[in-house]
Write a structure and sequence with these properties.
binds magnesium ion; two-stranded antiparallel ribbon; TIM Barrel; 41% helix; single chain; 2 domains
Amino acid sequence: MLIKHFYIFSGIPVIMLFIACNNKIITNQHKQETIVEKHGLLQVKGTHIVDKNNEAVSLAGNSFFWSNPSWGGAKFYNKDIVKWLVKDWNTQIIRLPLAADTEVKDGYLYEPEVNQQAVERLVNAAINEGIYVIIDWHSHHAEQTEKQAIDFFKKMAEKYGKYPNVIYEIYNEPLKVSWDSVVKPYAERVIKGIRQIDPDNLIIIGTPNWSIDIDLVSHNPISDPNLAYTFHFYAGTNFEWKSGKMKKAIQNGTPLFVTEWGTVNSDGDGKVHTESVIRWMKLLKKYKLSHCNWSVNDKTEGASILKPGADIKGGWTDDDLTPSGKLVKKYIRHWQEIIREP
Ligand code: MG
């Protein structure tokens, strides 16, 4: 396992040299075909997400931080950051956590305009750059705000349902609540609202216990033609337990999407657990799962990809990146090569 990744990473200087020497060619290729032009509308098929040619797709990218201004991540919600992530990180997908939790006092529930505008700014940027984008109802109590969620996703479906770039994530991380009597009924009503307007874009729904109990779903799945289920992991804790749940869910036929993962502990802090990250990435590659790393921020905590004070418009050097940022960049930047290796 270690030797294999040594080869992957030992190849980076050669690849970087190639890109530097052929910058014009690479740029032209980018202009000719974006990742969304290549794959089109994503569709659940069995346990895979397939593209317009019916081939399994695995995407790697970044989750932004909560959209509310007072927690510090919203300053990175600008189009220059998206451009930079696409150009320098080869990011194929971004996730936008609309701060929709009842406990966030400057979030969408209390200050809808500023939060919605931030999200829309980056949805537009992602469409312009030709990458995929997840609109995430970032809440731990979404069943308490069902009406607001339905209204919000109807607005998003009206605006963006015609773009293959857009994915709806309708509940980030339910807490220890029932799948059968809480999360599933909520999801069915939000999905119904979206499907009245947008019949085909991918929808993702969180699962109980901070989107870890993915194995509960197969007993009582939701009926929808294009629905996947959220699985989250942080590398610092419980690899065997969490990966066991993930494997069991896949064996049971559940389609998964890793909308959020971290290199550190599940509270978003602590040191980078490189060995565990390598094990997780091998699993994501094996099962062709897509994933977004938490998070684009410069907050002083382990999961941030940036050191405090990094430029909010991008243009970062390696010195601007945290240990997590450096490791994650290697995976995202080379993911499309990694998943093609035997
Ligand atoms: Mg559509």
